[in-house]
Write a structure and sequence with these properties.
Largest sheet: 6 strands, antiparallel
Oligomer: single chain
Order of helices and strands: HEEEEEHHEEEEEE
Distance between the termini: 20 Å
Number of helices: 3
Shape: globular
Mean pLDDT: 87
Strand order of the largest sheet: 1-2-3-9-10-11
Strand content: 35-45%
Number of domains: 1
Amino acid sequence: MKFNREVAQGRLAALMDQPATGVGRALDMGVIEFGDMIKGPGSSSGSAFALHANCPFRLMMEGRILVGSEDMKWLAKDVMNGFAADDERSVYDIRVERIDEFFVASHPKVWSVNVSSIGDVRLDLEEDLVIEVFAMSSRSSEAWRFFHRYGEHYTFPVDGEPKET
């Protein structure tokens, strides 16, 4: 199935006016969550929406990078000048804790969603926060995925019809 920028843009438009609620990881994928917490089957719950990036990505604020996908590669104790001397976590793990605290305190909402003709994503949020996801491969393997929790999700590159989770 051929990529349709307008379809992707329409799916991600669900993020408009949604607050960023969390940032983390699933293995080596970046995870950014948006929207109110919703209860799912059984005792599971989570934010209404999530963007999983299996490709390069970064979060910026006021013109500087807060955290990026490359930060997963470096142990904090090796590069943070003693700020994490006894820690085996990555620079990414340390920095996203602070970003989570910021999200909890300020609830920055998405005010702009842009998907490029090659599948790059840019989200502009309040507080001069920008999230960028970059498709970097000619292969058809998953670069990013947009989840509507307990509902439909959209995968780039497109791997067929939307799926129910």
